[in-house]
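ping. complex inputs:
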Amino acid sequence: MADGPQGADEAPADAQIRLGGLAEQIAFNLRLAQEASFQAFARRTGHVSLRPGRFAILVIIGNNPGISQTMLGAAAGRDKSTLTPALADLEKRGLIQRRRVADDRRSYAISLTPAGEAVLRELSIHAATHDRQLDELVGAESKDAFLAILRRIIAGLADGNAA
Amino acid sequence: MADGPQGADEAPADAQIRLGGLAEQIAFNLRLAQEASFQAFARRTGHVSLRPGRFAILVIIGNNPGISQTMLGAAAGRDKSTLTPALADLEKRGLIQRRRVADDRRSYAISLTPAGEAVLRELSIHAATHDRQLDELVGAESKDAFLAILRRIIAGLADGNAA
DNA sequence: GCGGGAAAGTTTGATATCAAACAATATGAG
DNA sequence: CTCATATTGTTTGATATCAAACTTTCCCGC
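pong. complex structure:
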């Protein structure tokens, strides 16, 4: 039964733990890889205290000034209710601003403030370093194929496709 | 406000949202893929109400009867404090049991109950289906390379390696 | 215009997670 | 043996997340 990379058949007493089929499963490794990446990014930007999720939000707002919360959530892959506290925090920090829209008074038009743009630029440096490290780990020759697979997974498992 | 420092284009009224470099970044797609997988698994096992994390815990316990919570956490990639409520819940449901260890009265020896083994068997069916779906999306010819990359990421970004 | 249903955001409730502080127990140095 | 330190698990505090219920506003058909 496919012992993990650690491979062993010892008693679970001390060092080697049997993961069973888990080690061979894509889902399990996908989660560990994602979390490792998340933690690494958080460590890198630690002092800024803006985590990967916030970074993605800033990038999307920066690229789409005036975007609504609902569209932002869809683009970032977060529920709209998740964005409420996140955006409130970013607004309180003065990184974004929310204007009421004249035509549709239900929605907000979100955009970066100058301070938000500055923070985004700083975070982008960390992100670039982080992604360079990931690129290295993935390998230049594998990157495109790797991304293609991730996108297939994202699309293939989207919401209802769980047939 | 006279906002729109970019002036370029206003909020994409429809579905055309600019992700900027995000779409090309491994970290961003890794997160979306992981979450899609997580959601798909949760949908699949919905009625059982045991999510991917719990499944991994049961698998590891099943493969390492008598394991301690600390080692279990390390194997599953969760902090020990995360396991406290999770194991309490599993114990309350009668799926696992925790015995005090004679030699070391600080730690517990965790093992599956017969009911836990039964649930594990049932979940394994869902997991197999889930992983079959993932295998399909990844492609048989790419699976090994894909897993190898994930493991490189996991190892390369582990805790301190964020140099 | 007037309702009824749809849409944008917020609120609430339930999980999951980590990190730091803590209590109980174990181990090792003198 | 005794005390300092390490380890195991729990508690507490802070985030992040989703889903469902809810409020406000919009749009459509009549």
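Residues 157 and 163 of chain A are 9 Å apart (CA to CA).
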